[in-house]
Amino acid sequence: MMQQGAIESETVRSEADEAPRLEVRHLCRRFDGRTVVDDVSLSVMPGQVTCLLGPSGCGKSTTLRMIAGVEQQDSGEIWADGQMLCDGRRTVPPEQRRIGLMFQDFALFPHLSVAENVAFGLRGAGGAAGGRVDELLCKVGLPGKRDAFPHELSGGEQQRVALARALAPSPRIMLMDEPFSGLDNRLRDGIRDETLALLKAENTGVLLVTHEPEEAMRMADEVALMRAGRIVQKGAPYNIYNAPIDKDALAFFSDINLIEAKVHGALAQTPFGEFLCPGHADGERVEIVIRPQHVALDFDRDGRGPEPTMQHGCAARGIVKRARFLGTESLVEFAMEGFDAEFKVLVGGVFLPPPGQPLWLTIPRNRCHIFSAAA
Ligand SMILES: Nc1ncnc2c1ncn2[C@@H]1O[C@H](COP(=O)(O)OP(=O)(O)OP(=O)(O)O)[C@@H](O)[C@H]1O
Question: What is the ipTM of this complex?
Answer without folding.
Answer: 0.96
